[in-house]
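Hi R.,

Here's the chain you asked about this morning:
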Amino acid sequence: MQLGMFDPFNQIFGTFTTMFIVIMIFVVVIVIIGVAFACRASSGIASSVARGFTMEAPSFVIPERHRGQTRSDGSEMKTVRLPEKCPSCGASISHEGIDWTGPLEAKCNYCGGTLRATFERV
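And here is the predicted structure, written out as C-alpha cells:
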C-alpha cells in the first residue's frame, strides 16, 4: 500500500522532468538557429566586401592620407575595389563608365546610388 502513495508523485515528477527536457531542447535548437543566422549574416557582409573587382582609380579617388604612397616597383598605389552589384538597385557594376564622385565613392549608372570603394594596397 505504501508504494501506491508514491505513484502520483513519481508520475508528476516524471512529467515535469519530461517537460523540462523538451523545453530545454527547444531552447537549444532556437539558440543554434539564431547563431547560424548571425554567422551567415556576418559572413555575408564580409564576403560582399571581399567580392567585387579591383581597378586603377584616378588620384582624386584615393584618400589624401594614402596619396603619394608607392609600391615596391616605384609606381603610385591607386588600386581600389568596387562591389560587383549596386547596393541600392542590385545592378551589375562594370569597369567601363564608372562615374567617380569623390574619394572612394562612385555613382551607379542605373539608379544614381552611391558605390563605396575600398582602397587596396597591392
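One quick note: Helices lie at 2-50.

Cheers,
M.
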